[in-house]
Specification:
By secondary structure, this protein is of the alpha+beta class. The chain has a domain of 110 residues: 2-Layer Sandwich (Alpha-Beta Plaits), CATH 3.30.70. It contains five helices and four strands. Helix 1 runs antiparallel to helix 2. The longest helix has 18 residues. The two termini are 16 Å apart. The mean pLDDT is 92.
């Protein structure tokens, strides 16, 4: 079995990639979007964190969070978000992917990949690189031609805050890769 080492920094800022089971394109569906939003909101009420940015793609999402001072338990939050979403999604008629005997033995459903990828944000430049990578991701995956046309992203929030101009990403903007962000 692989050993995954995570870097836990109390009050840290983290960049995540979370992927659906077998890359099933369910996250941007009419059924899934409000359920995922509610799973995030519920967890933020119970275990606060600041959602700095998020981009929801059909089969994965990228998110930037800052945890409260003295708290580094992002794993608990992701576990609870995945669990809440899965329960509500299946109850609302969503379908799960095929489940292996290994997943059945562990009591896992066919909605999410078992783990998630995490990167501890080091500084403001790293934060900007992670936000840029996230917001440009729908273009990278061919979902839209322009960043501003993608509906399930915090890009417009960043434009309103003055972090981007509306046409950001349309010219030759060097989007630095975040190694491992397209984790599988």
């Amino acid at each position: 079995m692989s050993w995954y080492r995570r870097r836990y920094v109390k009050g840290g800022t983290y960049f995540f990639t979370v992927v659906t089971h077998l890359h099933r394109p369910i996250l941007t569906t009419y059924l899934a979007r409000p359920l995922l939003r509610e799973a995030f909101s519920k967890e933020q009420r119970e275990h606060p964190f600041e959602m700095l940015a998020i981009v929801l793609l059909p089969d994965h999402l990228h998110a930037l969070w800052t945890l409260p001072e003295g708290d580094c338990d992002f794993s608990l939050r992701w576990s609870r978000i995945k669990e809440s979403f899965t329960r509500e999604y299946l109850a609302a008629g969503g379908e799960e992917g095929p489940v292996s005997s290994s997943r059945k033995e562990r009591g896992e459903r066919g909605i999410w990949q078992r783990r998630f990828w995490e990167h501890t944000v080091e500084d403001e430049d790293d934060l900007k690189r992670c936000a840029d990578y996230s917001h440009y991701n729908p273009v990278k995956h061919g979902l839209v031609r322009r960043v501003r046309d993608y509906p399930w992203s915090t890009f417009r929030k960043f434009v309103a805050m003055g972090e981007y101009v509306e046409y950001w990403g349309e010219a030759e903007v060097p989007i630095l890769d975040v190694h491992g962000a397209e984790w599988e």
